[in-house]
Every structure is written in structure tokens, then in C-alpha cells.
Amino acid sequence: MREYTIEQIGIDEYGKCGNIWNMETCPFTEKFRKQIIDGKRLVYIYKIGGEFIGEGDLVTGMDDRDYFIPGRRIYFSRLIVKKEYRNQGIGSDILDHLLEQAKWLGYKEAALGVDISNSTAIHLYEKKDFRCIAECEDEYGKFYKMLKLL
Hints:
The protein is of the alpha+beta class and about 150 residues long. It has helices at about 10-15, 30-35, 90-105, 120-125, and strands spanning about 5-10, 40-50, 50-60, 75-80, 110-115, 130-140, 140-150. It has a seven-stranded mixed β-sheet, with helices on both faces. It is globular, with a radius of gyration of 15 Å.
């Protein structure tokens, strides 16, 4: 079993997430930065030997009530693991950490969105008792909105 840590980071370290996903091509990077600065996005990083391997975020403010209800439902975002580290249980570790943090913050439900084509992530979420509440489509494609009672 490898030694790892999961740590919350702030805006000063957020640029290092480019080691996990392409921040330059993502259309939401600036929105995420603003949410971090405004205190509405909590970023947790899975690290091995100080290297950023995975990320999972808790979003504590948004308009879509399927995803966020103040004091009741929190939104999980950016659950992602570097390609070469996938299928090793890291995503599960990050998700477990987010679930613990959400409970600690007093939330009763967790919500997320996942591309319909991402069967690996859907399997993980279902294994952790998330259930599909809606099938949707936007300019980026089809996705499921999923919910879990905490």
C-alpha cells in the first residue's frame, strides 16, 4: 500500500492542478479560481511524495438546486485522477474523503454530475450509493445528475 495524503489547498497552489488535468483548455478554470477565492470551492488534492495525483472539490454555492441547497446539499466537482494512476483505488479514496468532509461540514446530501459515457466513474459512484436523479444534456453532452444521502 502506497503512502499518500489528501490535503486541502488554496488559490496559491491551485495552478499545480495542471499536473492532473489541462487547466489551459478547460472552459471552467477561471470560474473555479473565482469560486476558490470567494470561498465557494474547497479543493482537496491526493498527493504521493508531494506530487499532485488526483483532485476532488466541494462546491458550497451555486444556483442549481439539484446540486446545491444551502446547509443541506453539497456539490462534488472535479473528481479526477492522473491517467497513469487510474484504476488503483485513488478515485475511491478521494471520494471517501469528500464524503467525510461533507458530513463534517454538516451536509445531509451530496450531489454530482457525470458524463453518461464515463462508465468507470458511474460504477464508482453507484458503489458508494449515489443514485441517478436525472438524465440531462447541455452543450458538452449527455450526463447524469446523481445524489447520495449522507
